[in-house]
Amino acid sequence: MSGDLGFVHRFEPGDDSNVTLLLFHGTGGDENDLVPLGRELAPGAAILGPRGKVLEHGAPRFFRRLAEGVFDHEDLVRRTHELADFIEAATERYELDPSGLVAAGYSNGANIAASLTLLHPGLLRAAVLFRAMVPFEPEATPDLAGMPVFIAAGQMDRMIPPDNTQRLTEILTEASADVDLRWRSVGHGLTYEEVAEAKGWLSGVLPNLGPTPK
Ligand code: MLT
Question: How many CA atoms, within 13 angstroms, populate the side-chain half-sphere of residue 115?
Fold first, then answer.
């Protein structure tokens, strides 16, 4: 664990892969939570997991919310830029390949990954979003030019209405991302089958990540 670069975070170097999985935990999690998930999703990839800096009754999150599913937009935008700065600083510090930065987030972590995708196009080269919502409606459509995005959603998720995930898919698709949305008859909790699906999807995507856009 390290506390510098502005975020408490965990970094573990990869084998000989150029891929770094950026792991974004859910509300109440920390930088260690998703490490086993990351190892399963992309064996051999480096792992970088920051801890969200906002505390909600002591539970770490990546941005403030006013109520469940109602986000503090100003805080969200500020925290997204702050996280992008951290990712850039960590890329330099740990000598990561910027063209291999791939996000994997769950719930609040998926929402901050979606926000990073919309506000910093090109920073993340692919994203796996488990239980994601629309972080905000973008004023202008970003150019995500073929960015592969996997979304795993639960039809019985009580925190995330299905039409909200559907809307996120539309926003990303309008921005030219290549979205693979998978529904299952499950709730907010992640299932082993979805992790296996995401792993299969990533194994097709990771060898084909192009160079960083100019
Ligand atoms: C959020 O606040 O990002 C969503 O409500 C999901 C969550 O945190 O569990």
Answer: 26
> What pLDDT score was predicted for residue 102?
98
Tokens describing residue 52 = 């969200």
d(CA 157, CA 164): 11
CA distance 62 to 76: 8
Tens digits of residue pLDDT in 9-29? 999 999 988 999 999 999 999
Name the residue with tokens 């390290």. 2
Protein residues with CB under 6 Å of any ligand 1 atom: 26-27, 65, 68-69, 107-108, 111, 159
Query: Residue 148 pairs with which residues in a beta bridge?
Result: 178
Q: Which of 65, 71, 112, 134 to mutate to test the pocket of ligand 1 (most atoms within 8 A of CB)?
A: 65
Among 112, 129, 214, 126, residue whose Cα is nearest residue 177: 126
How confident is the model over 109-155, as pLDDT tens digits?
A: 999 999 999 999 999 999 999 999 999 999 999 999 999 999 999 99
Q: What is the pTM of this model?
A: 0.96
- Number of alpha carbons in the 13 Å side-chain half-sphere of residue 84: 18
